[in-house]
């Protein structure tokens, strides 16, 4: 049978991927009420946040530029977005900002 901590950690992990802030507050409430241990809740929350952020970064890195050129995207936003100034700033200050 699956342990209570592991079951709660799996639920926290999945919830964080859906709605991050509410799920982390919920995980904290579970810890305060001794329903899950702090290491399990923290590990599940951190890993889901990290995985979600890396996934979004990967999507933007591999598909972001080509997405801007799609006709439906141009209709939706109406103009071409200028990314060059933002990319230059991020190349210069990105490590510190992250």
Structure write-up:
Helix 1 packs antiparallel against helix 2. Helices cover 82% and strands 0% of the residues. The chain has one domain. The mean pLDDT is 88. The protein contains five helices and no strands. It is mainly alpha-helical.
Give the helix/strand layout.
Blueprint lengths: L3 H15 L1 H13 L5 H31 L2 H7 L6 H14 L1
Helix pairs in contact: 1-2, 1-3, 2-3
Fraction of residues in helix: over 70%
Order of helices and strands: HHHHH
**Can you tell me the overall shape?**
elongated
Number of helices: 5
**Number of strand segments:** 0
Q: What is the arithmetic mean of pLDDT?
A: 88
Radius of gyration of CA atoms, rounded to a whole number: 19 Å
- What structural class do the secondary elements suggest? mainly alpha
Beta fraction: under 5%
Number of self-contained structural domains:
1
Q: Separation of termini? A: 40 Å
Low-confidence stretches: none
Largest sheet: none
Describe the structure in brief.
The protein is mainly α and 98 residues long.
Entry keywords:
single chain; 98 residues; 82% helix; 0% strand; elongated
